[in-house]
Amino acid sequence: MENGNGSAVVVAQDVTRQYGEGDTRVDALRGVSVDVPSGKLTAVMGPSGSGKSTLMHILAGLDKPTAGSVVVAGKEITTLGDSELTKLRREHIGFVFQFFNLLPMLNAEENILLPLTIAGVKPDRARFDELIRSVGLGDRLRHRPSELSGGQQQRVAIARALVSEPDVVFADEPTGNLDSKTGGEILELLRHAVRDLGQTVVMVTHEARAAAIADRVLFLADGNIVRELSGASAHEIAATVEEISAQ
Amino acid sequence: MIRFSLKGMMGRKLRTALTALAVILGVTMVSGTFVLTDSIDKAFDAIFSSVYEGTDATITGRSAFDLSDGSGTTAPPFDESLQPEVAALPDVAAAIGGVAGEAQLVGKNGKAIVFGGAPNLGFSVDPTKPEFNTLTLEQGSWPADGEVVIDVATASKKDLSVGDQIGVQAEGPVEQFKISGLVKFGSVDTIGGATLAGFNLPTAQQLFRKVGKLDQIRVAGKPGVSSSQLVSEIEAILPEGTQVRTGAEQATEDAKGTDEFISFLRYFLLAFGVIALFVGAFVIFNSLSITIAQRTRELATLRTLGASRRQVRFSVIVESLVMGTLASIIGLFLGLALATGLFKLFDAVGFTLPNSGLIFSTRTIIVSLLLGITVTLIASILPAFKATRVPPIAAVREGATIAPGRFARFRTPIAAVITLLGFAGLLWGLFGPDLETTQILLFMILGMVLVFIGVAMLSAPLIPGLTGILGWPGARFGGAAGALARDNARRNPQRTASTAAALMIGLALVTLVATLAGSIVQTFTGAVDKVFVGNYAITAQNNFSPIPIDAAAAAAQAPGVVAVGNVRTGEALVFGSTEFATAVDPGAAKVINLDWVEGSNAVLGELGKDGAFVDEDYAKKHDLKIGSPVEITFANGTTATFTVKGIFDPPSGGSPFGVVTISAEAWDAQTSSPKNLYSFVRMDGGESEANAAALEAALKPFPNAKFATRGQFVTNQISGLKSILNVLYVLLGLSIIVSLFGIINTLVLSVFERTREIGMLRAIGMNRRQTRRMIRHESVITSMIGALIGIVLGVILAGLLIFKIDLIDFSFPTSQVIIFAIAAVLVGVVAAIFPARRAAKLNPLEALHYE
Predict the structure, then answer these.
(1) B682 in helix, strand or coil?
(2) What average pLDDT does chain B have?
(3) Which in A208, B553, B607, B793 has the greatest CB count within 10 A?
(4) Is the pLDDT of residue B1 over 70?
(5) What secondary structure does DSSP assign to B501-535, as a single string?
(6) CA dist A2 to A71, A76, B118, B613, Å?
(7) Does some domain include residue A124?
(8) Which residues of A touch B479 (CB under 8 A)?
(9) Which of B124, B107, B102, B87 is closest to B213 using CA atoms?
(10) DSSP for residue A39
(11) Which residue in B487, B758, B764 has the most chain A C-beta atoms within 10 A of its own C-beta, making it the best mutation to test that interface?
């Protein structure tokens, strides 16, 4: 990675996000500052309504903050228009969704290559084969999503997120729709992407077990980052969640 | 349950509104047609009864058989000596004689005053008894010798006023008159853009070549004398060839022509309303089917809460009933606006229809509502049954689908059977033995409806293949958006098929019309090339009205003219039935060339006083050979025997001749004011500027006549067909607009359904332009599928019709088909505008949230 291990690929400062006005105003984020270090897996945890999803949407340029600054790959994104944001997503960001979001009429390979097709970029065959090997989909490329298991579908989705070699991959509850064994395999795959491929991943999750694979875990509550752990075990994380929820 | 249905509709306002539009347009057309024709009907009734107000009885010439309008033959006039006899009858208070005819008004520039193809009516008026006049004086005074009254509408359009000079051309060359006054026809400015001219009786008799004759006597009885008493009194003294009617009967008789016109206009326009509703049914069916599929979870939840299948079905039907009723009511009232618009439109093209206020009858309301609601209900039956197949489990399980129906696996065979039945109906209608016109129409219409439904069902399995071919350019050159559009278009073949089917119907009908018209033009042009061997043709300004024979006689005197062949036209009674009969003068042998089965082209010049020639089919039908006698009864009641001198084989495309043709000499002897349909001229040196100038000069006194080269003649003759064709295109355009809404609706529903997908695509880098392009390509693929199937079907249907009509040879309308294909692409592009914008505006966040 050109950013080098440890430098921040996403930098957010004093990000606030309010929904609505007056009495119905909701403060989803109340001045969050966070760095996403390159080549690391960052997990974002928090009870529902804590603002963890909102934070991820803002970091990924899908939503705009009410105030504050977000810099992705060296570029301030809060002032960008739709076409510049689209370009940013094409070149620098990958997504993994809870419900996989594959196109039913495309086969696995076509789904994986979709970001390149949309951008009009020719895939590098050798790199593609390498990617397929690493996500373990070798014999499934010609299958449609309906012919794949949930785990296989999410592997396709992860390959799709990685295919354009983005600076950062955002994963929204990637195991939320999978059984625990399959979920474990998907987490292992994400870990592999960070460890062996040098990817940067930000993962929103509410499962302590999932967060345990992260290099760093951020805890959100009521729109603020209230705690941060590094290299914590599932047990420690679960305890922290308990503690925060109890407050 | 009903409340639930209504709430559901409110929640889906956009979808409901788009679906309703499909019904509204058709109902608008139906209601507008009724309002328009009822209003015209009433206006005409008022005109004709006002024309005969104060007239208790009328005496007119009686023709030997019933005449149709515009054939060139009119009832023969009678001797004016009848008028004093009638006036002398004890119960008669007044008896006024009159004549009528065609009087072409000629403007200051020497050009004929024509509005579209409207007639130029001329009447005699009696200044002493204005209550008996057809015309009502608005300004100035009734005409004296050398004066004319003209209608207010023509005066204002041509900037003419009382005291101005105006030319009038009737049977003879143009003569100058002073305008003494302006008139209306009964109570209206004009009917159908016709020009009106009124003269005093001697002037009119001289103009219409009816000196010493009358066309009509209007009689008023003394007070206390009933009409029937008056009629029987007059009957006693009536000479041969005349008849008497009460004033009311005469009004009805005069209104007959317009009544036929109105009822034709009514059925003609209604047909297009019904076609639009039929297309609308496809749109409703499709929209409801998609909506049901999208409401799977909601319907399943209802089932888990205890709703029975019947209740679910009922809720869908109630929903469409409410929508159909609302849409029909809106359409009903929009029909009033449409009728007003049509009045203005007809006026703008010079065909002014009388309008004395819009008539909104109970029948209009009932038929419009009934049609709209029934069509909606029928279209909702299948979707309603589909809704009952939603399993309750779908409420809790992601991705549960509606089970296919019991008959789903027979779908293709059923579709094939429907299509075959449709074609069988069509073929039976076309070729079945001894069918009446109504039966033929019934079989053909039923057949077409079945064919359309069957083909729509059959096309679903073809969608993946067709999409592959038609989507190829987009996929090849449109990048990811193009490729995804193609995949989207074929992921739900049934949906794409029924969306395309709506457009298919419109395009099939448009292609049918274009193919028929193209073939007619082609064959007609060929026939003219073959038959017409002269250099110039003389016709009326409007290309089709028969014109006074003096015009061609004047042309014959032009320097350089070698021969003039005139074709007179009219009706005569032959072998007990009224036939289209024609007459030629000897010059025809040099300008007309026919294929002769028996005899030769010289027959045209050698008919003499008692010769005739007949066409081949007619000869076969009545077993006629050279030398066979043919008895012909003319309108004036005279019967004469003619001898067959030749039998000709008319070219496909038709000839100018009727079944029986005699010499002009023999024809003129029996016909009052004979008229030419065409005159063909051969000149020294063929087509040349000098010859054209010579004809121009010779025809100067006859502004109603014009001459044309062979090429121009063909173009002029076809121009009428072209205008009809344009009217048909506009009216069929209505059903294409309905299908446009169908495509919009399907796309909006699909975009809604694919919200998450589109959000994902946006999240992984698809920009707004690509998103719009994706929707647009899908729309264009759908419309092109509709166009392709429609065009193929249209050509097949036209082929069948042309095969039946042996006067036309099939010709493929290449340029029109290309235009239709381009138009279909445009329909796709236009339909996509709104859905594509919605898709492009979707927030990528939806991909993460939306469920």
Answers:
(1) strand
(2) 88
(3) B607
(4) no
(5) HHHHHHHHHHHHHHHHHHHHHHHHHHHHHHHB-SS
(6) 16, 19, 84, 100
(7) yes
(8) 117-118, 120
(9) B124
(10) T
(11) B764
Tell me if B488 and A105 make a contact (CB, 8 A cut-off): yes
Q: Where are the domains of chain B?
A: 1-55+259-406, 56-258, 414-458, 461-531+716-851, 542-703
How many CB atoms within 10 Å of residue B126?
18
Range A19-41 average pLDDT: 90
- pLDDT the model gives residue B397: 62
3-state DSSP percent of chain B in helix, strand and coil, to 5: 55, 15, 25
Cβ-contact B508, B456 below 8 angstroms: no
pLDDT tens digit string along B812-846? 999 999 999 999 999 999 999 999 999 998 888 87
Q: Name the nearest CA neighbour of B850 among B780, B789, B763.
A: B763
A57, A115, A172 ranked by CB distance to B764: nearest = A115
The answer to whether residue A68 is domain-embedded is no
Give SS3 for B730.
helix
Helices (H), B492-615: 493-531, 549-556, 588-591
Shortest CA distance to B185 belongs to which of B322, B48, B388, B297?
Answer: B48
* Strand pairing report for B611-615 and B639-649: parallel
Rounded to whole angstroms, how far apart are CA atoms A190 and A169? 10
Q: What's phi and psi for A30, nearest 5 deg?
A: -120, 55
DSSP A66-131: SEEEEEETTEE-TT--HHHHHHHHHHHEEEE-TT----TTS-HHHHHHHHHHHHT----HHHHHHH
Which among B480, B487, B756 has the least Cβ separation from residue A118?
B480
The type of residue at B612 is A
Closest alpha carbon to B377 in B432, B431, B316? B316
- pLDDT at residue B201, as a whole number: 93
Can you name the residues that pair with A168 across neighbouring β-strands?
A93
Interval B511-530: pLDDT, tens: 999 999 999 888 888 888 88
CA distance B363 to B369: 10
* ipTM of the shown complex: 0.82
- Identify all chain B residues contacting A164, using CB atoms and an 8 Å cutoff: 765
pLDDT digits (tens, 9 = 90+) for B399-441: 556 777 777 788 889 999 999 999 999 999 888 888 888 888 8
Find, among B448, B457, B450, the residue nearest to B496 by Cα.
B457
B845 and A103 in contact by Cβ < 8 A?
A: no
- Give the range of the structural domain holding residue A114, as residue numbers without chain letter: 38-56+80-246
- CB contact under 8 Å between B480 and A160, yes or no, is no
Using CB atoms, which residue from A60, A83, A94 is nearest to B767? Answer: A83
Containing A19, the helix (H) or strand (E) segment is strand A8-19
Tell me which residue of B197, B276, B251, B195 sits closest to B55, measured CA to CA.
B251
Whether A15 maps to a domain, the answer reads: no
- Any A CB within 8 A of B757 CB: yes
Confidence at residue B401, expressed as pLDDT on a 0 to 100 scale = 66
Give the C-alpha separation, A127 to A194, whole Å.
Answer: 16
| Residue A192 within a domain | yes
Contact B807, B523 (CB under 8 A): yes
Q: Check if the beta carbon of residue B315 is closer than 8 Å to that of residue B5.
A: yes
For B144, other C-beta atoms within 10 Å of its C-beta total 12
- Angstrom distance (rounded) from CA B325 to CA B23: 10
Length of chain B: 851
CB atoms within 10 A of CB B28: 27
Q: What is the pLDDT of residues A50-78, one digit of tens each?
A: 888 889 989 988 888 999 999 998 999 99
Residue B809, number of CB atoms within 10 A of its CB: 14
B449 vs B11: which has the higher pLDDT: B449
The helix (run of H) or strand (run of E) holding residue B347 is helix B309-348
pLDDT at A26: 86
Predicted model pTM:
0.83
